[in-house]
Amino acid sequence: MFKVFISQSVYDRIISTEEERTISGRSNLYKLLKQQPIQILTDKDTERFKLHPENVQKNPSSLYILNIAHTEALTIQRTYGVMCVSGDSPNISPLIDVNDIHIAKEEQQLGRGWDTVLGSVEMLPSNALLMTDRYLFAIKYPSAANGISNIKDILTELLPKQFQGGNYHVTIVFDNMAKNENYSFSEIVQLIEDVKKQIGREYPITMEVLGITPECSIYKKLHNRMVISNYFLVEASHKLAAFNKYKGTVRQMLIPMTLFTESSLNGRSTPPLDAIDHTLATLRNFSKSLQYLPESSHKIYLYAVNGEVKDKCLSLRNRLVK
């Protein structure tokens, strides 16, 4: 859940300065503070974050505006994958969408594939990632751009080069009944585990794979094909297996979006954050329900973590759905 944690002195200064301006002249930061949940931090609270910066991961998709130096804020952001800025000159422009839309065409090259599509969001901090596409593994053949090769390209672009906040979390959700008949669930799990090793990150990655079926309560709610992280989403109008060596597999729109738009901050449209919250709430409720399922109901999905297929799942581990 997105929330703004802000030092009291910084909040007071921003509000007093902005409210001297005309309504039309007020900044996006002011509008965000007035629209989104905020928690104002005392000097002691701020000092605790300085002494224990790891605590930012208790709210891993929030914005922290702290009365600390720019270098300290940047270190927290890079270490824990959480958006943290100095109260001296808080810049939230990375959270404002740039309306970046890409149209992939079948058998035509689109720049460098996912590298081109993700250019506007790949530098945002992150500590978790979630992919959902029911038909992600409908094609197996390497020459036809299968889900595995596209997962590798997406993770290569989006997983940070450095991360010191413990395990980075990745969850992949697909329809196990719609996978190619030549795939087994265990094979998909092993191939994804191989990808995890191939991308060569030095920090530990918790990799979850969830194969749902039409009997799952969340099945109809996960129609959209999405990549979701702490501060952005990428939506594919047809499928995430979008490229075969930089060439489009189908004609579709691929739209990376950060949390807010200028229009949404001005009250004229819905922020992309709402789409993220809706999908994460669906998975969060599913995760919470697992521990209450009768034993027989755990057969309506398959689950694996870090290459090991489990008999059942009692809770998803991804911090995005905690």
Can you give a write-up of this model?
This protein is of the alpha/beta class and 322 residues long. Helices cover 28% and strands 21% of the residues. The protein has 9 helices and 15 strands. It has a 9-stranded mixed β-sheet with strand order 5-13-10-9-6-7-8-14-15, sandwiched between helices. Helix 6 (147-158) packs parallel to helix 7 (185-198).
Question: Top keywords for this entry?
Answer:
alpha/beta; single chain; four-stranded parallel beta sheet; 322 residues; 9 helices; 15 strands
Produce the secondary structure layout.
Blueprint: E1 4-7, H1 8-18, H2 28-35, E2 38-41, H3 43-51, E3 63-66, H4 70-80, E4 83-86, E5 102-104, H5 114-117, E6 128-132, H6 147-158, E7 168-175, H7 185-198, E8 205-212, E9 225-229, E10 232-236, E11 243-244, E12 247-248, E13 252-258, H8 262-265, H9 272-289, E14 301-305, E15 308-310
Parallel strand pairs: 1-2, 1-3, 3-4, 6-7, 7-8
Antiparallel strand pairs: 5-13, 6-9, 8-14, 9-10, 10-13, 11-12, 14-15
Helix pairs in contact: 6-7
Tell the overall outline: globular
What is the average of the pLDDT values? 95
Distance between the termini: 9 Å
- Low-confidence segments, given as residue ranges, are none
- For the biggest β-sheet, the strand order reads 5-13-10-9-6-7-8-14-15
| SSE ordering | EHHEHEHEEHEHEHEEEEEEHHEE
Condensed summary:
This protein has about 325 residues and is of the alpha/beta class.
